[in-house]
Automatic annotation (TrEMBL):
The keyword Oxidoreductase belongs to this UniProt entry's keyword annotation: yes
Keyword Amino-acid biosynthesis: no
GO molecular function: aldehyde dehydrogenase (NAD+) activity
UniProt-listed PANTHER family: 2-AMINOMUCONIC SEMIALDEHYDE DEHYDROGENASE (PTHR43720), ALDEHYDE DEHYDROGENASE ALDH (AFU_ORTHOLOGUE AFUA_8G02310)-RELATED (PTHR43720:SF3)
Pfam families referenced in this protein's UniProt entry, alphabetically: Aldedh
EC number(s) reported in the record: 1.2.1.3
Residues in Aldehyde dehydrogenase domain copies: 23-474
Family to which the UniProt record says this protein belongs: Belongs to the aldehyde dehydrogenase family.
Name of the protein in its database record: Aldehyde dehydrogenase
GO biological process terms on file: carboxylic acid biosynthetic process; polyamine catabolic process
Keyword terms, alphabetized: Oxidoreductase
Active site annotation, chain numbering: E248
Highest taxon of source: Eukaryota
Length: 482
C-alpha cells in the first residue's frame, strides 16, 4: 500500500487516506490516486490469509471472543460513520444523507448481527443403532470476496460478517471505482484487534486483480456481487479448482400494483425502489406493472412524485435526492439505454437525458418510459440507473407472466390489500425475494439472493452462514464388530 495522503471532502471532513486515480463524479476532477494490485500482490494477500487460517491466534480463538472482535469493529464503524458516509458519497455519487442514514446503519447492523452468531454455529448429533454420529460446521478456509461499487460499505459488511463469524480468513477486493472506504475500513479492522492476515483488503482492476484472486489455488471460496456477465467468467475460472462460490448478480425486478392497492403507498415505494441510489441497485424495481383500471392514475401520481422528490444535484447539497452516476462509463451506459428506448418507440413521460442545469458531472435525469412492449431492451435488460418503465396489465395471470418474462430472478414487489392474492402471487413469481407492500427494505436477519441468472446462494440471515461453513460428519462405532 502506498503512503497515506490527507484529503478534505467538499463537506469539510478531513482524513488520512491510505492510497491509483479516482474521479469526482460531481466535478469530473481527480480525487486521489490509489495503487492497483498485481497478481503478485494478490498472491501475497492470499498467502497471508492462508497462514492466518492455521495460526493459533485465529484458529484457537474462542467463538465468544471472535464475536467480540466483530462487535468492536461495528462499534468503531459506528463511531466513524460520518467519515465513511463522506468517503462513499464522494467516490460513489450517492448523497451524503443517504450514505449516512441508510448505508452506515445497515453496515453497522450487519456486523452486529453476525457478531451475535459467532457462538451459536453448531453441528448436530445423530443417534443410530450401535452408532453415535455428529456433524461439525467448520470454516471453508480462505475466502476471496469481490464487491461492487454501488454500496461499498454495505456489500463489504454483508460478506465480511458471516465469513469472519464462521472462522474463515478473507481477501476482499474492492471495486476499482470505490476502494477508498474499504481501505479506511482496514484501519478499523486493525484497531479492533483482528490477528494479522485474517482480513486483507486489495485494490485493483477486475480482470487483473479479481482474476488472480479467483484463480489462486489457495483460495477455497469466491463470493462475488456484480454483473451476470462477470459472474459467468468467475464460474468458469473457479471451476478449474472446484472452488465453492456464492454469486449475487443482476436483476430486472418487477413491481406489481393491483387495483386494490393503497395507491399513495404504492407510488411512494415505487419511486424509492428505482430512483434511490441513482437507480444503481441490483434489486431496483425498474419494471412497474400496473393493473389497467388504475394505470392512468398511477402514472400521473408517479410522475408527480418523481418531479417533487427526485431533485438532482451535488451529493453534498441539502435537499438533493439523486446525485451523479458513479462514473462516466455508467452515465454513458444509462443514456444509451434511454436512447434505445426512444428508438424502439417507447414514450418518454419524464426526463430522458442530462439535466440542463448540470452539464458537468455524471448526471442523468430521472426517466420514466410508458408505451413499452416486452420485447424492448429497456423492459428486458438491467440498466442500473434512474430509468423505469411502466406497463399496464389486465389480469393476475398476465401480471405474473410479464413479471417472469426475464432471464433474471432477484427480487419483486407486490402491492395489494388482498391477503390471498399477496401469498398466491409471491409463490408464483420466479425470484429469490418478494416484498409485499414495500420494496428494497432489506434486513440482515432475512436471506438475500436470486434465482435464474441473478445468482447462486444466499447472503444475510442464517442462510448467509451456510455459505461460509462446510459440514464434516464424524461416525463413532458403539459396538459393531466383525
Amino acid at each position: 500500500m502506498s503512503h497515506p495522503v490527507s484529503l478534505t471532502a467538499p463537506n469539510g471532513v478531513t482524513w488520512s487516506q491510505p492510497t491509483g486515480l479516482f474521479i469526482n463524479n460531481d466535478t469530473e476532477e481527480p480525487i486521489v490516486s490509489v495503487s492497483a494490485a498485481t497478481a503478485d500482490d494478490i498472491d501475497t494477500a492470499v498467502k497471508a490469509a492462508a497462514k492466518a487460517l492455521k495460526s493459533a491466534e485465529w484458529k484457537d480463538l474462542s467463538d465468544a471472543n471472535r464475536g467480540k472482535l466483530l462487535w468492536k469493529l461495528a462499534d468503531l464503524l459506528e463511531e466513524n460513520k460520518k467519515l465513511f458516509a463522506t468517503i462513499d458519497a464522494w467516490s460513489n455519487g450517492k448523497t451524503y444523507a443517504e450514505a449516512l442514514a441508510i448505508d452506515m446503519v445497515e453496515s453497522v447492523g450487519t456486523l452486529r448481527y453476525y457478531a451475535g452468531w459467532c457462538d451459536k454455529i453448531h453441528g448436530q448429533t445423530i443417534v443410530l443403532p450401535n452408532k453415535l454420529a455428529y456433524t461439525l460446521r467448520q470454516p471453508i478456509g480462505v475466502v476471496g470476496q469481490i464487491i461492487p461499487w454501488n454500496y461499498p460499505m454495505s456489500m463489504a459488511t454483508w460478506k465480511l460478517g458471516p465469513a469472519l463469524a464462521c472462522g474463515n480468513t478473507v481477501v476482499l477486493k474492492a471495486a476499482e471505482q470505490t476502494p477508498l472506504s474499504i481501505l479506511m475500513l482496514g484501519t478499523l479492522v486493525k484497531a479492533a484487534g483482528f490477528p494479522p492476515g485474517v482480513v486483507n483488503f486489495v485494490n485493483g482492476y477486475g480482470k487483473e486483480a479479481g482474476g488472480a484472486l479467483v484463480e489462486h489455488p489457495l483460495v477455497d471460496k469466491i463470493a462475488f456481487t456484480g454483473s451476470t456477465t462477470t459472474a459467468t467468467h468467475i464460474m468458469a475460472a473457479a471451476a478449474k479448482t472446484l472452488k465453492n462460490i456464492t454469486l449475487e448478480t443482476g436483476g430486472k425486478s418487477p413491481l406489481l400494483v393491483f387495483e386494490d392497492a393503497d395507491m399513495d403507498q404504492a407510488v411512494k415505494w415505487s419511486h424509492m425502489g428505482i430512483m434511490s441510489n441513482q437507480g444503481q441497485i441490483c434489486t431496483a424495481t425498474s419494471r412497474l406493472l400496473v393493473q389497467k383500471s388504475v394505470y392512468a392514475d398511477f402514472v400521473a401520481q408517479f410522475i408527480d412524485r418523481v418531479k417533487a422528490v427526485s431533485v438532482t444535484g451535488s451529493q453534498w447539497a441539502e435537499g438533493v435526492y439523486q446525485g451523479p452516476q458513479v462514473s462516466k462509463a455508467q452515465k454513458e451506459r444509462v443514456l444509451s439505454y434511454i436512447q434505445a428506448g426512444k428508438d424502439a418507440g417507447a414514450t418518454v413521460a419524464l426526463g430522458g437525458g442530462v439535466p440542463a442545469h448540470l452539464p458537468k458531472g455524471y448526471y442523468v435525469e430521472a426517466t420514466v418510459f410508458t408505451d413499452v412492449t416486452p420485447d424492448m431492451a429497456i423492459f428486458k435488460e438491467e440498466i442500473f440507473g434512474p430509468v423505469v418503465v411502466i406497463m399496464p396489465f389486465e389480469t393476475e395471470e398476465e401480471a405474473i407472466k410479464l413479471a417472469n418474462s426475464t432471464s433474471y430472478g432477484l427480487g419483486a414487489a407486490v402491492f395489494t390489500t388482498n391477503l390471498e392474492r399477496s401469498h398466491r402471487v409471491a409463490a408464483d413469481i420466479e425470484t429469490g425475494m418478494v416484498w409485499i407492500n414495500s420494496t428494497q427494505d432489506c434486513d440482515p436477519h432475512v436471506p438475500f439472493g436470486g434465482v435464474k441468472q441473478s445468482g447462486i446462494g444466499r447472503e444475510l440471515g442464517e442462510a448467509g452462514l451456510e455459505a461460509y461453513t462446510q459440514i464434516k460428519s464424524v461416525h463413532i462405532n458403539m459396538g459393531t464388530r466383525f
